[in-house]
Amino acid sequence: IPQGISAQDNKPLTLDEAIKTALQNNPQIKSATLEVEQQNVLKKTAFDLPKTNVSVLNGQYNSEIKDTYIGVSQDIYFPTVYIQQNKVQKQNVLLSEKNLAVTQAELIRNVKSAYYQLSFGMEKLKLLSYQDSVYKKFSDVAELKYKTGETSYLEKLSAQSKYQEIQVYKKQAEADIKIYQQELQKLLNVQQEIIIASVVKQSLSVNSDTSAIKQNPLLAYYNQKILLANSQFSLEKNKFLPDFSIGYFNQSLDNVKGFQGMQFGVAIPIFFWGQQGRVQSAKIQTQIAQSDYENYQNTLKATFNQFLQEYQKFSDLLNYYESTGLKQADEILKASQLAYTKGEIGYVEYIQNLTQAISIKSEYLNSLNQFNQTVININYLTGK
């Protein structure tokens, strides 16, 4: 059984448990975590020296007598190159960590969205089940009135048609729930069917100021790409500096052994067009990274403001439904059923009232779901 899921049958899964399970099981998180490990391992390459050269010479290189020459040499970059390579790799590690944070934030956002979407589907099915029971009673009353001659065959047929129509809507709602469950299963990477706990309206705890988006994980990722590009640019400039070589030799001359010494060399870049191209390319990359950051920042601000407008819109709608609309819908249902049973209103008026009341309840659920989804997106944009 995947981690975070209880083996107990039909135990409702809370939102926090769903998020915890997803963070433990989701393959994208595992991949991003491994990337962080990979970049940490690559820190060792910052001080990677070229291979050591070993040379052996044996023969008549000084006289007719065979002598032996053994030499060892090592090429070394200018010291600041190694320092800068270490800085570049540290920036790569930080970039992989930012990528992990983005992956986690997106997964949490998607789990919340799928969880609340599933809750919406379940509430919608409850409303349809209630509608089903109302139309069933209505159909039974119409059947009874038809038998006693109090109503027409057309009214009876219409009542049965409405009841059958609701059955179709219920099947569609049940299919939607299956789809929402499968989406949540995919995010959590589990096989068993998910049953969720009942949920309530999301609460929003962010400022309407656009400064709230500074905590956005993807914005931090783009900022880290700037730091990496700047570090890479500095590295390429450092490679203009000379390289060094150091060596040791031991040789014999005319069979006299023990001649030894050290050698030092400096490699000066005379033909630097290739490295100049790499420096120019690295500089352009810093400009690209800066442009990408500014572009996403502008998009983020616009998206944030859009979601704030939607939040206010759906918040106002919910205030209406919760303070007035739902109560009126219940009163319409109760009064209409009583009036129709007593014969005070006809079939057409009853259906109109019933449709109006159910529509209010249905629109409330739609508004509640859109409100919750908006809050989830705002929290994601602000790094919560």
Structure description:
With 384 residues, the protein is an alpha+beta fold. It has one domain (15-381): Outer membrane efflux proteins (OEP) (Up-down Bundle). The protein is 67% helix and 10% strand. It contains 7 helices and 4 strands; from the N terminus they run ααββαααββαα. The chain has helices spanning 15-25, 27-41, 79-147, 153-188, 217-238, 273-341, 347-381; strands at residues 53-59, 67-76, 243-253, 256-267. A 4-stranded antiparallel β-sheet has the order 1-2-3-4, with no helix packed on it. A hairpin with a 7-residue loop joins strand 1 (53-59) and strand 2. Helix 5 packs antiparallel against helix 6. The radius of gyration is 37 Å and the shape is elongated. The model has no long low-confidence stretch (mean pLDDT 87).
